[in-house]
Amino acid sequence: MEALIVEAIVRPFADKIIEELRTKISRQFKYLYRYDKIIEELRTKVRDLEKQRNDVEEAKKYALVIIPEVEVDVWPKNVDDLKKKVDEVLHRTTNSEIRCQCLGCPNIFTRYSLSKDATKMITEIDELVKVKFEMVGKRAHHGSEDLKTRVSTKKKIIRALEDTDNSIVGICGLPGVGKTTMAKEVETQVRKDKLFDEVAWVTVSKDTEIKIIQEKLAEALGLKIEQKTNEVERASRLNEELFKKRKKRILVIFDDVWTGIDLENLGFSSSSHREGLKILLTSRFEEVCRGMGALTNIKVEVLDSDEAFAFFKNISKISNDDTQLLAIAKQVAEECKGLPLALEVVGKTLINSGLYAWKDALYQLRNSRLEDKVYSSIEWSYKYLKSDEHRSLLLLCSLFPEDDSIPIERLVRYAWGLKLFKSTKKLSQTRDRARTISDNLKSCHLLLPGDEEEEVILHDVIRDFCLSIASKGEHWYTVKHDLVTEWPEHDADEYESYSAIFLTFQGAIRLPSRFRCGNLKLLRMQSLWGAGVVNIPENFFDDMQELIVIDIDGLLIRSPIQLSKGLRTLHLDYCVLGIGMSFFGSLKNLEILTLLGSVLSVDFSRDEVVEHSNIKLLDLRFSKGPCPLPPGFLLGMKKLEELYLGDYFNINGEKEHIIQEVSSLKALNNLQINTDDTRFLMQLFQGCSEEVENFQINQDRQFLREYSVGNFLYSPEHSRRDLALDNIDPNMLSEPGMKSLMRKSEQLSLSVKGWNNPVIELAEDGFINLKSLKLNLLDSEYLIDNAGSIPSDIFRNLESLSLTRMSRLKEMCNANFPRMEHVTRGVSEGLFCNLKNFNARDCDKMKRMFSQSVAKGMVNLEELTIRLCPSLEVVSVETHESEITEPLSFPKLKVVRLEDLKSFVSFRSQPNAVGLRQTLLNQVTLPKVKELYIRRLGSIEKILSMEETPSGSLNRLQFMVVDNCDKLVNIAQSNSIKLLKNLETLQVKGGRALNVIFDFEGLNVNNDNEEEISILGQLGGLELYRGDCLVHITRMVPKGIRVFQNLQQLEVKNCGRLRYLFPSSMINSFVCLETLAVCCGEIEEIFGREEGEGEGGMASNIAFRKLRRLVLTDLKSFVIFRSQPNAVGLRQTLLNQVTLPNVSELYIRRLGSIEKILSMEETPSGSLNRLRFMLVDNCDKLVNIAQSNSIKLLKNLLILKVMGGRALNVIFDFEGLNVNNDNEEEISILGQLGGLELYRGDCLVHITRMVPKGIRVFQNLKLLTVVTCDKLRYLFPASMISSFVCLKTLSVRSCGEIEEIFGREEEEEGGMASKIVFPELKSIELIGLPRFKMFCSHTYELVFPSLDLLKIQDCPVMTKFCSGQLNAPKLKGVQTENDEVLTFPISLDCNAGSVHNSPSSSDCE
């Protein structure tokens, strides 16, 4: 009984204890048997946490308001701390200690510990993830996308650029109002919207010369302008190059224009001002824009008070909770008067400042003059800078030309010489200080990022302020910056007060013998015409003995010059030097000497050695060859920190002294040399390898050719560790000194024949510092062998890997990395965890690139390029069937290039995955890929498959090229087409099996879902070339869906089996099409009938509302845009029932079946209203270009070119033309035509026929060219002679039957004027006209007030110029066969067939 009682009392407690023990034991065992899942969960959790942290940091970077603000600074730090712990745990999971040392089986104690720690960290991550952030603010920058007034202004500008009547648009406004920023916003938007094919940005500035603008323009447009001196010839070359780009839409932005630029002198002829070319100007002055031809000028206004304060508040990061500060801040913003530059400078300066600073800013700004609010805000920010060093560096930047992109390294050299930074003792410290201050000034918006990473730009308004500060004499310098075309005449004392002068020479300037500048501290002289043009006289520097920094670029120094003994920095870059070592002997205080890119005409090795004990930086990288240093030259340079020796190729002389002297330089931390002598290189570094931190060693001449010496100053060579070894002896790779160098290297390039060991053996403890690795010609079979003995972080910092011509390479690694099987995206671990760029080329034996365990770790890969690897079948392969659980993912990959891989079938292979190998992108996720290039892949059958290509892959694909993949049947079919929903451009070339581009058969869509019924909705460009087997572009497009609704450019060329481009059911799809170019011999029509397609429901008219350029070439069977039932007789007219209201360019070449181009009855009203350029070339059934009333459709045509045509007997046939003679517009026919060119018109009888009386024709014709039209008897009837009042150039050549320019038409009546004036005609060419008699046989008095060139060659029948009197006051003579100009008086001798001098003026008629 007692036992029962005890049991009743104890049992509940015992059960509870047992349950708790069971729970605890179960939990402990869970750490073991759920080890894999716990570790995987930890990886996933930390990945999500990192993403959230990155979002917060991105928001902070762009000054977004983040809620809750109390957490925004603490939370990321907590994440970082926890992340370190997680990384340590995850690193331990890959370490060998998780396996038993004896048997190699899992170590249960280690796994238990790791699993337990991971579980704890998962809980901590969950707590951090609970903190939710909301980004409610806006970007605090000087942009326009978040300001309503700026958005409307930007829209106005873009609308003006889209208007075909505007060729030049101006942006005007106050200094600091944001004109340049607005132009940049417009540039970004038009690029995004693809309004232009090319956009060129040219910064003009105040003092820029035409030549410099021409160079900038050519560079921006990628044009080749070889003429370097003559501005007129350069302008002509620019115009020629622009003409080559006439088919493209080009926007040229000229920023910061101060005075009017003559665009014709620049290279924009009047013929360049076509619809496709637009010019956008920014200027403070509206009259400048108007003077340059801008009909539309849009003013950028100041911000209104509400926008200004919202903008200011975001910049200065003010909390809405601080009401007191908000009130002061609003007043401060009001004092900036809505000027974005002032708001930004003041706002960024006041970030995290106390209330007292805000009050002081308000007081200072209120006491400034109203008209100087921008300068006042800059001045206040300038005074508020942290130190005098900040102010000095900012003022130093103002020395450089306006809008110059300033290399920070140049500032370092100047700052060192001028002793701007008092606390820095080494160049490296000065460099770090200059970078830090530059970053601070950029954060205050007093400096802007430069064109390159290590450069800065000073806003022109801030530069003006800095120069005004300097001019007041309150600081260490005053400055003068001039662009000099000739040396100015000036008062002898004019430059005496200047302490800094920058001179840029434009041309062959002759410098004065002496230049009196007694207070000058810094002088920079630069020649734009290169070395040898401007010579520095021997005594030029005699009166500049206070100089401490000299920077000379591209000048000639023939003989020694006397420099200041206090000189600390001397740059003689890209100069021609006729000076010896003794020249530098007196410069005892010199600390920086650079001779970069200069030509040395004196042998230094023969000079007496001079001591330079204070030199800290010595740059001897001459343009050609090494600097032959005499023994002992470097011995005295005990303070030398940076030595750039240049090229030592093919040098067989004594180099032992260089090795010894470099080894004695204990302060040296940066060494550069290019040499092919490996032994010399090794000995050189053995003595100084420990001291040298940074080095640039190169044995690769190809590298040097690609990376010219001119780039070195502007690249951060002072902080690089580069080693490039070419054709090195393989045995030397194992030497300790070489291994030490490779271990230190950040960029390593090896080209070694005969090295057949794994590359990893080159560095025993790994390439821990390596960021870029290039391997060429190595005989290794693997990069990594014996994977089990290699730490996983051996390439942890590697960002770029290139493998070239490694003929024996089989695979990256010869074994899997089991410890990396659980590597996931976003966690920085794995063999190539930080690799961004991978390139493989000419690796003949490689069949697979990576094992799947390695590929999974490549989470940061951004660019993948594989070329000319004929055996390669897959990128990634996995041999363990159990591993195929999820798609392979490259989460950051942006560009993929697969080219010339004849065996390649798939991105990823899987065991037992029958049928999947034929799909290129099977089981691989590429969520961020933007560009995909697939060229000459001989084995792929499919690119995409909805079943095999994971959902979400290719979501960002924008550009795709498929070139000659001979087993590929289509680009995409059925539902896989949906994967290309964001594709913007597709280029397809060749393909022996490719018979359809997009096969829609089997496509499933939900017609109620707006997104689903829009297919290929972002595709803007489609280009198809050499599709010999292509039958359809689209096939079986379902009813009710929209396809190609944003297509802007369509080019189809040499697709021999295409009969039409698209089925008639798609007529209304091309609402955005701007360019249509077709060149396919068998095409009969643009829109045809697909098999099974009915005839009902088709529109009677085709409308291409946005089409601007239409090109139809080599279409021997083409007759019409779209076939129509029962439309008998319409097929002979090309543009029947086609509306083209915006077409500006029309090209019709070799259309063998068309009989008419236009018909007033069949071409809809309003079509061709904006046609400017028209070319008709060898259309053999065409009878005329336009006839009767259809001529009216060409009322805005500017240029017409006609070539050949077997049936073409008249250009414009006016018979049947109906006009209202009381309507001024109707009686002006072809009134805009400025150029008419006719070539090879073998059957052409008339240019015009039956022109009615009372109408005006060709009244704006400026250029008329007629060549090889053998049936023409005259160009125009005499009744039209008074029409050509604007004609400037007339050229008639090789026309066998022509007798005169203006002839007699049948039934021509009298009563015409007796005096005919050609007011604009400047040039007449009459060449190769065997039957030509005279200009006109009527007895008119012909007046040519502008004629200055009359060229007559091979006109044997011509005896006089005209029957009447000739009046040409500017004409000096006649140019003959040999380009000899014979002066008047002359006669025309028909017997001799030549022109010669005559003794009497009476013979000239």
From TrEMBL:
<dbReference type="InterPro" id="IPR057135">
    <property type="entry name" value="At4g27190-like_LRR"/>
</dbReference>
<dbReference type="GO" id="GO:0005524">
    <property type="term" value="F:ATP binding"/>
</dbReference>
<dbReference type="Pfam" id="PF00931">
    <property type="entry name" value="NB-ARC"/>
</dbReference>
<feature type="domain" description="AAA+ ATPase">
    <location>
        <begin position="165"/>
        <end position="322"/>
    </location>
</feature>
<dbReference type="GO" id="GO:0006952">
    <property type="term" value="P:defense response"/>
</dbReference>
<dbReference type="InterPro" id="IPR050905">
    <property type="entry name" value="Plant_NBS-LRR"/>
</dbReference>
<feature type="coiled-coil region">
    <location>
        <begin position="32"/>
        <end position="59"/>
    </location>
</feature>
<dbReference type="InterPro" id="IPR002182">
    <property type="entry name" value="NB-ARC"/>
</dbReference>
<dbReference type="InterPro" id="IPR042197">
    <property type="entry name" value="Apaf_helical"/>
</dbReference>
<keyword id="KW-0611">Plant defense</keyword>
<dbReference type="InterPro" id="IPR003593">
    <property type="entry name" value="AAA+_ATPase"/>
</dbReference>
<dbReference type="InterPro" id="IPR027417">
    <property type="entry name" value="P-loop_NTPase"/>
</dbReference>
<dbReference type="Pfam" id="PF23247">
    <property type="entry name" value="LRR_RPS2"/>
</dbReference>
<feature type="coiled-coil region">
    <location>
        <begin position="218"/>
        <end position="245"/>
    </location>
</feature>
<protein>
    <recommendedName>
        <fullName>AAA+ ATPase domain-containing protein</fullName>
    </recommendedName>
</protein>
<keyword id="KW-0547">Nucleotide-binding</keyword>
<keyword id="KW-0433">Leucine-rich repeat</keyword>
<keyword id="KW-0175">Coiled coil</keyword>
<dbReference type="GO" id="GO:0043531">
    <property type="term" value="F:ADP binding"/>
</dbReference>
<dbReference type="InterPro" id="IPR032675">
    <property type="entry name" value="LRR_dom_sf"/>
</dbReference>
<comment type="similarity">
    <text>Belongs to the disease resistance NB-LRR family.</text>
</comment>
<keyword id="KW-0067">ATP-binding</keyword>
